[in-house]
Specification:
Layout: E1 10-14, H1 18-24, H2 29-50, E2 54-61, H3 69-92, E3 95-100, H4 108-121, E4 127-135, H5 137-153, H6 164-168, E5 181-184, E6 203-206, H7 216-228
Parallel strand pairs: 1-2, 1-5, 2-4, 3-4, 5-6
Length: about 240
């Protein structure tokens, strides 16, 4: 059991390894993605139970469009199906869904499912789940800086008002706490253009487990490790 006072407010997860999990079992990659969806549902409910306030999941990067067309098409169909059939259950438990990323280039039917999910959960506040879809952190910062520049031109802000606190208000995660813990599955140890600004003081947890293997017990183990960390934010131990 993780001590209540050690539960992170914001956990971010790079859900990696669906394809390799399937390949190791001589299954199609699509089966790996389908199994990965089950873990998403499981960990959202666990995060809610533990009292985590924000959970950010890296679902589909801007670079993922370069995958084989058949795989991308299957992922879009799976995404729509999950949103259509699971949102009500999440909404009934006070869970809010938000999608962070660019809308340009996303198929219309996917945008329709995204907008419906956000609208149906917008009044919930017990747990916010950010789904990073068509997301890239550099693109997020470019979008933020463009908004800053426009507000300067419109004289809504002055140059002297631009600081770290001000910039966070232009990010996709505006109004949310910074990430406390980043988890990445599948043994890779990089952040892959994910939340570059928000991860500045996050603790990192890497595991060899592929995402379809990262169940509730694995998640709790990651939180237990986090609970042992001493976060100094550039200072020294007391």
């Amino acid at each position: 059991m993780v001590p209540e006072d050690k539960i992170p407010s914001h956990v971010a997860i790079i859900m990696d390894g669906n394809g390799r999990w399937a390949k190791a079992r001589h299954l199609p990659r699509t089966q790996g993605h389908a199994e990965g969806v089950k873990r998403v549902e499981e960990l959202i409910l666990q995060a809610h139970h533990l009292g985590i306030k924000v959970l950010t999941l890296y679902a589909f990067s801007m670079e993922n469009w370069n995958r084989p067309a058949e795989e991308v098409s299957m992922l879009m169909r799976l995404f729509i199906m999950v949103l259509s059939h699971r949102v009500k259950d999440l909404a009934d438990q006070g869970i809010r869904l938000r999608f962070i990323g660019r809308r340009q280039g996303v198929p219309a039917e996917v945008l329709k499912a995204i907008d419906a999910a956000m609208d149906n959960t917008k009044h919930n506040s017990e747990l916010t789940v950010n789904i990073a879809f068509n997301y890239g952190s550099r693109a997020e910062m470019v979008d933020a800086f463009k908004c800053v520049a426009q507000d300067l031109l419109d004289k809504k802000i002055t140059v002297d008002e631009i600081n770290e606190t001000a910039i966070t208000k232009y990010l996709y995660t505006a109004g949310q706490p910074e990430v406390d813990l980043l988890i990445r599955t599948s043994g890779e140890q990089r952040i892959s253009n994910f939340l570059l600004w928000q991860l500045s003081y996050a603790e990192f947890y890497f595991t060899e487990k592929f995402w379809p293997e990262f169940n509730a017990a694995e998640f709790e183990n990651a939180l237990k490790v986090f609970a042992t960390r001493q976060r100094r934010y550039g200072g020294v131990y007391a």
